[in-house]
Amino acid sequence: MKEVMAIIQDETLTYSQQLLALARLAENMDHTIELAPELVKAKEEGIICDLGEGNAPYRPRYICPRYQLLLDKGSKFLALEPAQDLYEALNNLLIMYRHVPSITSYPVYLGTLDEMLEPFVQKVSYDDAYKALKLFLLNIDRTLCDSFVHANLSGKDTLTARMIIKLTMEMQLAIPNLTVKYDPEQMSADFMKLCIECMMKTAKPSFANDKMFRKEWGDDYVIASCYNGLKEGGGGFTLPRLRMYECSLKAKDADDFIDNVLPYYTQLMLKMMDDRIDFIVEQSNFFKANFLVKEGFVELDNFTGMFGMVGLAECCNHLLHIADNTKGYGNNKEADDLGVRIMEKLHALVEAHTCKYAANFDHHYRLHAQVGIDSDGRENSPGARIPVGSEPIMPCQIMHSCRFHKYFETGIGDIFKFEETWRDTPEALANIIEGAMKNGMRYFSGYLENNDVVRVTGYLVKKSELAKLDAKGQSLNNVSVFGQGARDYGNALDRRIVKNNESAN
Amino acid sequence: MKAPINRIIPFSNVDGPGNRMAIFFQRCPFKCLYCHNPETINDCINCGICVQNCPAAALKINDGKVVWLEENCVSCDTCLQVCPNLSTPKIHHYTVKELVEKIAFEKDFISGITVSGGECMEHVPFLIELFNEVKKLGKTCFVDSNGHHLFVDHPQLCEVMDMVMLDVKAYEAADHMVLCAQDNQNVLKNLRYLQDIGKLYEVRTVMLPNDPQLNERTLKGVIANLDPNIRYKLIKYRPFGVRKEGLKKLGNTITSDDEINRLYDIAIKLGHKNIVII
Q1: Shared domain check, A279 and A392
Q2: Can you give the pLDDT at residue A504?
Q3: What is the pLDDT of residues A193-247, one digit of tens each?
Q4: Which stretches of A208-299 are DSSP H helices?
Q5: pLDDT for A102-153, tens place per residue?
Q6: Which of A368, A402, A455, B235 could form a cystine bridge with A439, CB 3.0-4.6 A?
Q7: What is the nearest CA distance from A393 to chain B, expressed in angstroms?
Q8: Is residue A331 domain-resident?
Q9: Cβ separation B11–A498 shorter than 8 A
C-alpha cells in the first residue's frame, strides 16, 4: 500500500501525526456501513462530504465529559480519588484529557476551567496558583497538540478566570481554543475589557452568546472544537456536511433548489447520519464499554447528530447568476433573502426528521455551519459566511450574520480582523460585541492583523508554525497543516480588516 | 433643513469614548496648513473642473450644479486633486431624519455619535435638532470642534450635547494666524467656557516637526488654562494628505519622537496629569 509508505516517509509529520494517519487508513479499510448508491454518487460529486470522519466511526465525533464529576468523585477506571487541592485537580484533569476520544483523538472540550478550579485556587497563594495554572496550560499546549482542543470560561469575574486570561496573554499559545460565555447583563465591564485585551493580543477568547445558547440548550451547554454548541455530559455523534454550491449546480433555478434538490440531498445525508450513529451506538464498543459512559461522565441521550453545511453564499450567488461576490450574498438583499429562504427550508427539513437516539433533543439533529476544510478552495465559504474579501462594512456584516446565526444551534461564528488602533480601545470593541449579541449573533471572534496567533476559519494557528511547515519542517500542532491549506487555497487569512477610515455615506 | 456631509465613519474607535459613528460636516472657517482633509474646507461652487477631469464618468452637471453619480465612482480622488477651491463634489446633503435613520441602524453597536468636520459648528441649528433625536435613542453626542464659533452663544446646543473635543492649534494669536489663517480669540474663550460648564472632554494640539518654540508656546499656554486632569493630546504632525503649501512651510516629515517626548516632559513638569501622545 503506497499510502502507508507515504505516511511513514513524510518528514513533515510528527510521530503522533503518523500514528493517527495510519489509524485512519486502517479504519477506512472497513466497509460495514453500507452506502446507498445515491449517497456514493453524491459524495463523488462533492455534494455530501463526510469530513474525513472515517468509514467505521468507533467513538462519537465530539465528546464533552462532565469533568466536575471527576473532581468530585474521582474515577474508578483511572484509579483517581476526588481532588483535594489545586495540584490534584489539575493533575487529574490532565490525566483524564488523555483518555477522552474524539475525531482528532484529542479532547475537544476541556471543561469550564474557572468554575471547576476556583474553589481550589482560593485555597493557595496567588503565586502558587499562577504557577500551577501556567504549567497546566503549557502541558495542554505541548501534549494535546491540536487546536480543536477547547476550554470554556463561565463569564464570571473570578480570580481563576483572570489568571487564565492573563496567562493566555503572556503565553501566546494556539492551544487550547478558548471561549468565554458572554451575557452583557451578567459580565462585569472590567472583566469584559480584560477579555477583549486578551483577544487583541492572542486571538482568544471568543465570545459565545450565553443567553441564546442557554435558551436552546439549557444551562449545561458547552463550546467545543471550533465553536460547536453541545451538551455537557454528551456531545456530537457525527458531523457530515452538505456542500451547498455543488448542491445548487443540480438545480434549474432557486425554486427547484428549494422544492426538490435541497430536500433530496438533505434526506440522503440524514440517512447517512442515522446509519453512522446506529453504528457508533450499536456496533462500536464506546457506549457499551468506555469508562466515560460507565462512570456517568457522558450519557447516550445527551448526544445529537450535527447536520453541517458550507457554501450558502456561493449557492445563493449561483442560483441568482451573480458572478461577482462583492455584488452578491452579503451585499445584495435579493441574495440574502434567498439565503434566508434556503435556511428556513433546511431547518424545517432537519427538524422534521426523527432519529432513533438523541433522546434529550426530542430525537432531533441540529444544524451546524461548518467552517470549511482546505480542499474546499474558494467555492464554498464557511457555513453561512460572506466570502472572504467581499465582506461589507462591519455594521452591515454583523447585521447580516444576525439574520443567519439563529438557524445553527450546534454552532456558527464570525471572525473579524482588526487593525492596530483597536488594540487600545477595548471599550469600543465591547460596544460592538454587546450590540452583536443583542441582535442575535451567536459567536464572535476577533484578532489583530499582525499577531502570531491568528484565527483561520474557527481554529487558531501560529503564523510561525505555518512558516515551519512552509520550510518542510514539522509542526507539533496537528492543525497547522489545515491552517496552511486554508491560507493557501481558501485565502482564509485575507479577510477584510476593520479599519478606522471606512466611510458609508 | 439639510446639512452637507462629507463623510460618515460607521464604527470609529478614535473619536471619543467607546465605539462611535463619526459624522464629518463640510465647510471650515480655518485653513490650516496641515489640514489632512483640505477638501472639507469650502462648499462646492459648481465650477465644473472636476467634471471634466473625472475618469469614471461619475460626475455631471445638472442645472448648473455638480452632481456625483456614486455608483460610477471608483474613489480615485482625482476630483479632489483638481479642485481649485479646497472642496469636493462628493457631498451628501442629509436631513436630520435621514441621518438619524443611519444612526438607528447601528445604535446597538455604538456609545454614541461624534460630529466633526470641516467644522461642525458651522451647522449649529442642524446639530441641535440632530442631538435631540439621538438622545431619544439613548446615545451620547460629542462635538469635535476647532473652537472658532463661541459655544456660549448656543445655550441650546450646550444643553443637549455631552462633551466637546477641542482643538487648540496655537495659543499665541500670531502663531494661530500663520497656521490657520484665522484669529484664535474665540478658541481660547471656548477653552475656558467649556471647562466652566463641565463639558470639555479633551484638548488636542498638532505638534510641528520643525518649530519647537511654537510647540512649546502652545503647550505652555494650553496647560496654564486647562484643568490638569482633562486629557491633553499631543498629536505628531504627519505629512500625509497635507497640501503643497503646508508641506513647504511645515516640512515633509513626521514630528520626531524626541520632540514629542520633550514636550511631554515639559507638560508633566508643569503638573499636567493626563497627557496622551498620538
Answers
A1: yes
A2: 47
A3: 999 999 999 999 999 999 999 999 999 999 999 999 999 999 999 999 999 999 9
A4: 210-217, 244-248, 254-256, 262-278, 286-289, 291-294
A5: 999 999 999 999 999 999 999 999 999 999 999 999 999 999 999 999 999 9
A6: A402
A7: 8
A8: yes
A9: yes
Chosen for mutation from B15, B19, B70 (greatest number of chain A CBs closer than 10 Å) is: B19
Q: Does B137 touch chain A (CB under 8 A)?
A: no
For B235-266, how does the pLDDT look when each residue is reduced to its tens digit (9 = 90+)? 999 998 899 999 999 999 999 999 999 999 99
Cβ–Cβ below 8 Å for B18 and A430:
yes
Facing B5 at nearest CB: one of A393, A422, A505:
A505
Chain B nearest C-alpha distance from A387 (Å): 21
Average pLDDT over residues B222-239: 97
Using the beta-carbon criterion (under 8 Å), do B18 and A436 form an inter-chain contact? Answer: no
CATH of domain B49-82: 3.30.70.20
Which residue in chain A is spatially nearest to B18 when comparing CA positions?
A428
Asked if the structure places residue A81 within a domain, the reply is: yes
> How far off is chain B from A113, nearest CA to CA, in Å?
30
Write out A145-208 in H/E/C secondary structure. CCCCCEEEECCCCCHHHHHHHHHHHHHCCCCCEEEEEECCCCCCHHHHHHHHHHHHHHCCCEEE
pLDDT tens digits, residue range A301-332? 999 999 999 999 999 999 999 999 999 999 99
Residue A222 lies in a domain: no
Residues 6+ apart with CB under 8 A from B47: B84, B85
Measured between CB atoms, does B10 come within 8 Å of chain A?
yes
Interface contact B108-A434, CB threshold 8 A: yes
pLDDT at A500: 55
Q: Is the model's pLDDT at A457 over the cut of 90?
A: no
CB A443, CB A404: distance < 8 Å: no
- What's the grid cell of residue A157? 469575574
Fold for B2-40+92-277, please state it.
TIM Barrel (3.20.20)
Task: Select from A497, A422, A448 the least CA-distant residue to A172.
Answer: A448
What pLDDT score does A505 carry?
41
What is the band of B102 on the pLDDT scale with cuts at 50, 70, 90? very high
Record: contact B10-A504, CB cut-off 8 A? yes
Measured between beta carbons, which residues in chain B are less than 8 angstroms from residue A393?
10-11
Measure the CA–CA gap between A191 and A178, rounded to whole angstroms. Answer: 15
